[in-house]
Each structure stands twice: as structure tokens, then as C-alpha cells.
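We emphasize that the prediction below concerns an isolated chain of 297 residues; any contacts that depend on oligomerization or on bound cofactors are therefore not represented. The input was used exactly as deposited, without trimming of termini.
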Amino acid sequence: MEKKSLFLILLILGCAFWGISYPVTKLAVGDLSPDTFLFYRFLLATLVLCLVFAKSLKETNNEDIVMGMKLAIPLLVGIHLQTLGLKYSSASQCSLIASTCVVIVPVMKVAFFRKKVALKIWLAALMALAGTIVISLKGDFKISIGDVYTTAGSLGFAVYLINVERYTARRNLVPTIVPMFATCTIVTLIIALLDTSANWQPDTNVFWMGIVYCALFSTAFMYSVSNISQRYISAEKVAIIYLFEPVFAAFFAFLILDESLSVRLLVGGLLIFGATIISEIKIKKEVVPDRNEPTKD
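Result of the prediction step, given as a C-alpha cell string:
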């Protein structure tokens, strides 16, 4: 099997892991502070990745460490804020709002890198914004704090994806993976130590099972696969594959948490899904024949 085909399969599998992580995290954290949950999640993921990438770890240099730290900050912001969002919003709703990062990326490229963006991207951005409003806005025209956290987390993920795209074009990102998650571990430890409500030894198996699942599958596995896959698959195709995440999240939120799929959630989800599809469609320009060119009889 070609590496490209293998990574396509691994990415779809990883999106399933990501989707499942939404209801798993919501169930595991419950009424507890998410800070210790994130610390244990990143700690276990870092230890596992140290074993997986032991050979690359020996060859890691200062540039790899610095690059890993730069990638860690926006990634941690995204994960931390979306974990907070899960405490106040449903898992399926958070996953749909989080998927807007695919459309946010090109808009941020215009704002910060002055890159020209096609008209279809602006259309997609407006559709995604409309979808987020439909999902988030309640009957009293108020947006929950959970939706605000999740939307802000999407901005963090967008910055992370842009940096991954930029760095992948310059070098191999494998040596940066362990430093990236080690940085996340250190930062979440500091945040947890400052959190007076943090519980370091929750007396619940669901919490620890959630740690193991999220550390191994939705963190160590998926982020490693997504970083390496961009050596073989274009960023546009990777973005399309990410569309599987909210589908898996909504399905498993229904199975695990018995969450209902409201009309508002379905309409908003369709708008976001359609926006992402529009943003990735390649429109071929019609070739106009030269009138001076001789025609065939």
C-alpha cells in the first residue's frame, strides 16, 4: 500500500478518535476542573511518544525544540479552551463549532500574511459564521459561555494548522512532536498548580479511562499522524478529511451521552459542512480558444 493511501486511512481513523474524544472528555471531566485532566493527558501522551520516537528524540536539536514549543502554544490554547467549552455545551455542538477552524485558516492568512484569498473562501467564511450563529444563539438571543470558549479554541487550532503548514514546507516535523507535547505538559502542570479547585486524585474510573483514551488515541496517535501525513497529502485534502470529525462526534455523543440532534444543530451543522466543502472545491477556469488559431475541419 502506498504511504499516501495509508495515511488517508489513518487520518479517517484518527478523525473517529477525535470525534469520540468529545463525549469521552465531557463524561470524564464532569464537574471537575479540566486542568488536571489536560495535564495527565499530555503527560501520558508525551511518555508514550518518547518511546515511539526514541530514535528521532536522540537526534533532536535546539531548533527542533524551539519549533516544537512554537507549535505547542496555539495547540494548547485550542485544546484547553475547547475542553472548557465542553463543560458548558453539548459534545456534538462543540465539535461542529470547532470544525469552523478549517474556514478560519484562510481568513487568518489574509489578515496576517497578506495572502490573496478567493471569493469562494469569503462565501464559505460567511456560511460558517451563519452556521455557528444558528448553533450557538438560543431563543433568548444569548450565546453560552461554552460556545464562546469553543470558538476561541478554533482560533487557536487555526494558528496551529497554519504553523504546521509553514514548517512542513521547510523541514521534517517528526523531531518536533515530543518537544511540542512536552511543552504542553509543562504549561498545563503550571496551570493546574495555580488552580485552587484542581483535583489531583479524582475517585472515579471514568476520569482515568478518559485520560488513557485521549492521551493515546486523540492526542499521541492523531496529532502525530496529522503532522506526518502532510508530507504526502496536500493541506486541502487533509482539511476535507477533518470533516469526518463532527460526524463521528455527533454519532458517539448520541450513543454515549444520549444527546439529541436538534433541528437547530442539524441546520447549523449543514451550513458549516457546506462552507467547508465550498472552501475546498477547486474551480477550473474555462479555457477560451484563441480566435487567431486555425480551426480543424
